[in-house]
Every structure is written in C-alpha cells, then in structure tokens.
Design brief:
Layout: E1 18-20, E2 27-28, E3 41-43, E4 50-51, E5 64-66, E6 73-74, E7 87-90, E8 96-97, E9 110-113, E10 129-132, H1 142-147, E11 156-159, E12 166-167, E13 175-177, E14 182-185, E15 198-199, E16 212-214, E17 221-222, E18 231-234, H2 239-245, E19 253-256
Parallel strand pairs: 1-3, 2-4, 3-5, 4-6, 6-8, 7-9, 9-10, 10-11, 14-15, 15-17, 16-18, 18-19
Antiparallel strand pairs: 12-13, 13-14
C-alpha cells in the first residue's frame, strides 16, 4: 500500500508498510511522519527538493531509504532515532544539511556521501563503511573529525577517484586532503602511504583499537596519534628526527624498519 504526502497534509494509515512520496510534490513537511511505527521502507522520488526538520524522526521500524537526485536540503534530525536504518546514500545535489540528521541510528553501518556537504554521523558506533563521492569540497578539515566523533568501528574508507579535493590513495582506508597531502580522517585499518606530509589533530579520533602505526619517510608534521598506540614503525636512520615530530613518545616503542 502506498502513502502519498501533500505539502501540508499526510494521510494517516496504521497498516502502512512501504511509503512512496508522490512525485507531484517538492517538499516533505517537518515532522509529518514523526514517530510513525508502521514504516519499514521509504521511497522519495524526483522532484522532491526538501526534507524538513524531523520529518521521519523516531520511525523505529524504518530499515531502508531511497532519496532522489533532486534533493537539495535535509533538515535537522530528519532521520534521527531510526534504530533499524542500516545504510544511507546522500544524493549528489544536496548542499544543505541540518544537525543530527542520523543521531540515534544505532544500526547504521554504511554511508555514501555524493553531495558537496558532509552530514554528521557522530556516535553511530556500528558505522563501518564510508564512501565519499567526487563533489565533496569541505574547506574546514575539522568537519571530518566533527562528523564522525564516536564512530570507532570504521573499517573501510573510499573516496571517488574523480574528487579534486580529497583522496584515499593506494586503498589506504583514510581521507587525505589532496593538495596539502594531509591525513584528515583515519580508521583502525588505515595504512598511511608514502607521500603523506601532515597528520591533522583529529585524524585518529576513532582509532582506539590501533596499537601499531607505520609512518612514511615523507611525514613533516604529526598533530595526533591513535590513543592506544604502542609501537610506531619509522624509516631506518630517522629515529631522532621522528622523535621531535611526535606529539608524545611516552609508552611508545619506536621501531626502525
């Protein structure tokens, strides 16, 4: 059974399971499906452009969401507290995202961001896969740290090879700011490739299980290390040089390769 939404009114149906938004409309009103316990699947077609604040907040049975290429804005908490939602793809034309869109989506494991802005996925502790499209062009590199705070189960990070600003060169499972060769987001499976010059202050925020770290000879500055790192592998003959670069050395064994 389908459920069609007008700009201002949602038709109530307690037996609803799959929701299709009518292609006649361009906006999903704020809170219109708020805490609806009957929705498990959601399909939003073109030409819908805006999903307003809290539109699908608290839909406890929602497991899948399909968003249209026409979408440009997702409001505050639009999909928050949807505990069974497992994956989401942010379309390429999204340029505006509100705070806490996916807060409380505790089963979220995979996110794909095709647009130019990065939503917050913080505290989604089962998030394991991040895919970044070619359009993401964040100027403030701190946004990566902020967006993924508490996501300590990330295993795979992939950046589209056509992205002009960021990359995940050599399948390193990290996000690198291309022009400055700066590592801005790492995970427990990150392998830092040769050519990386800088490690940002928040790069290892979600790497609590990373005990060993190998640094390339190209490193010029290091502003952070994994919280529980015990061994750092460095280029042979550069021990004193790397000691000066490290933000801390206590309890860490430096091993020359």
């Amino acid at each position: 059974m389908n459920k069609y939404i007008e700009k201002e009114v949602a038709i109530e149906n307690s037996n609803l399971k799959e929701v299709w938004i009518s292609s006649r409309y361009t906006l999903v009103r704020a809170g219109v499906f708020n805490y609806d316990p009957s929705i498990y699947s959601l399909i939003i077609p073109n030409p819908v452009k805006r999903i307003c604040n809290g539109a699908f907040r608290g839909c406890e049975e929602l497991t899948s969401v399909s968003l249209p290429d026409s979408l440009v804005s997702i409001g505050y908490g639009a999909f928050s507290r949807c505990p069974k939602l497992t994956s989401i793809t942010i379309p390429q034309n999204v340029t505006e995202v509100g705070y806490g869109i996916f807060r409380g989506c505790r089963e979220l494991t995979s996110v794909t961001v095709l647009g130019s802005v990065l939503p917050e996925f913080c505290m989604n502790k089962k998030l394991s896969t991040i895919k970044i499209g070619e359009k993401l062009d964040i100027i403030n590199l701190y946004a990566f740290e902020k967006s993924f705070i508490g996501c300590n189960n990330i295993k795979t990070i992939i950046v589209d090879e056509n992205n002009k600003y960021f990359d995940s060169r050599n399948n390193c499972n990290a996000i690198i700011h291309t022009s400055s060769d700066t590592l801005v987001l790492a995970c427990n499976s990150t392998e830092i490739p040769e050519g990386i010059k800088h490690i940002s202050a928040g790069a290892f925020k979600n790497c609590g299980r990373k005990k060993n770290l190998s640094l390339p000879e190209s490193i010029e500055s290091i502003k952070s290390l994994p919280e529980n790192v015990k061994k750092i592998i460095i280029p042979r003959g550069h021990k004193m040089e790397f000691k000066k670069k490290l933000p801390r050395t206590r309890g860490i064994e430096l091993i020359e390769r």
